[in-house]
Amino acid sequence: MELKILPGLEGPADLKQLSIGQLRDLAAEIRYAICEQIMKTGGHLAPNLGVVELTVALHYVFDFSWDRLLFDVGHQCYPHKLLTGRFHMLPKLRQTNGMAGFPDPRESDYDLFSVGHAGTAISTAVGMARGDTLRGEAFDPQKNADGRRVVALVGDASIVNGVAMEGMNNAGTLDRQFLVVFNDNGMSIAKPQGALAAYFDRIRINPAYRKVKRAAKDVVSHLPGGSLIGEMYHRLGEMAKDAIAEDAWFEKFGLLTVGPIDGHDLPTLVDMLLEVKEFDRPMVLHVHTVKGKGYEFAEGDATTFHSPKPFKVQGCKVELKSGGRSFTAAFADALIDVMSRDEKVVTCTAAMPDGTGLSKVMPAFPDRSWDTGICESHAMDMMAGLAKTGFKPYFAVYSTFLQRAFDQTFQEVALHALPVRLCLDRAGLVGGDGAIHHGFCDISILRVFPKSVLLAAMDEPSLRGGLEFMRTYEAGLSAIRYPRDNVSDIFTADGEACPPFELGKSRALVEHEKPDLAILGYGVMAISAMQALEQLGEYKINVYDARFARPVDLELLRSLIERRIPVVTIEDHGIEGGFGSCVIDTANQHGLDTRGITRLAIPCRWIYQGARGDQLEESGLDPASIARTVREVLDASSERVPLITVERKTPEPIRS
Ligand SMILES: Cc1ncc(C[n+]2csc(CCOP(=O)(O)OP(=O)(O)O)c2C)c(N)n1
Predict the structure, then answer these.
(1) What's the pLDDT tens digit per position in 381-402?
(2) 153 C-alpha vs ligand 1 centroid, how far in Å?
């Protein structure tokens, strides 16, 4: 397809010069450009294809250089980026120094928040609406017709997230224009879960709804400039009331609801948005879209094409780039094994059955596994409840989304020493999703809880060993982390057995009696340390798979420090409060000299999108950088004064 409009489009102002026919052509070009790009680099496909017309219409009607547009999750922002002067960045989608896959204010003033977690758009929009009102800049049809309007775009799976509901509850109290565009495509990544999802399904197939949809179209085409909302309510009579009564859920929040309208019908969208734009109270425009619209593979399988890896189309078949055995796949098989051996084990995911591997586990144990929808806080509490009734819950969650359930982890789980098991996928640097999705702080946030036990898996056997250890650990919370990566086979290729996990004990991978230095690798970083060793042949270096960040292997640590052996800790986690900090704190608590400990970790600054390998390099965590640091430590320690063991004395009582 030849792109005729998109490449020359400098911004939304140009869009406003186009006819409706040209807008349709533009929508087709956007779809084509997105498909072509995602085939090469991967990225969010189906969510973006579903909102092409909706985004075109929003930019056509509003002026988001002044008005506010907030995306929920933000994975559906590609058309918005293309319409706001970033077509030239598309070839570097999700790459280092390229275009982020989520809204990013560093790229454009049109992106208000850097987001990637669900549920936030309505609340941040309420805040901006209140701020604009306080500044006297808010739109008001009588007093400030040129004022700023606020629009939040939210999907049907995200709107049931607790934060979104809290936002709506508050939005309903606003005394000003406030528009929630409800993008209802009947899908999350997988099928959306919960009673509200069933309700949305019901109204989508309600005949009254369909009649209203047709009638709304009719009203729009016959009454340009008329009050469409008024018509929806007054002219359509009983039929409208029926449908609106069924669709009245939002109204309970104080949000007037219009629609549902067809989210791919540009004239209807434009007319309806022109109408709701002038409305001066909080409201919802219910828009029905098709996820993956316009690309048959994505329409047919919106889950696989939610965010595919690069792929090729061969005739009528799609070939997704295959990528070896992932930790996620290894986890699914390991959990199936644990669940088949212990009928007390139960599991859940918060809307990520495919991402966490539970889609393989759930059919095998339908009574002991749940998808709760996008609600990590609820899922954590549900796990607490299950633990309280004597079950052994394993919550499979991305490290980054665990952050959404911090307080529940504290109060409902840790405070009661409930043995909830957290299986933290995507722990560490995640690649193309960038800063909004790195699992950089799970150790920091979990280590504060008494009795919490923190583990990491370095390969598939150790993931199995860790899950089995957790099955029997009943004294409190436990968490195992593993990355968005493939499992290494360097310790499995020759059939080497993985010794069972023992609380607070590391595993020696390479051990010399009198080493020059010791590396404590946490999780997959133990494998990277092994790879670094290949460049350090002239030294005797011990490498340990640390296994536990909490409790740290004190016996090993003491032995290394007392023998004055420099220690380098390596982790794919933020340096503040991570594994290395646990090691230093443990040493300090036991009066051991910490000066010989060097920490290698993700630095305390944001690492943006790019390949995971590049991000590890940027953080100094690739094998070459590890080898370099080890050399530097060895050079420095040969010049350093001998390490001393500090005797910790009880302080003298203060005498007055
Ligand atoms: C807190 C949180 N949990 C999980 C996710 C992972 N996730 C990304 S998109 C998505 C589905 C969103 O569905 P919906 O809002 O309906 O938008 P759609 O993709 O259907 O357009 C999920 C679960 C997330 N982004 N944030």
Answers:
(1) 999 999 999 999 999 999 999 9
(2) 13
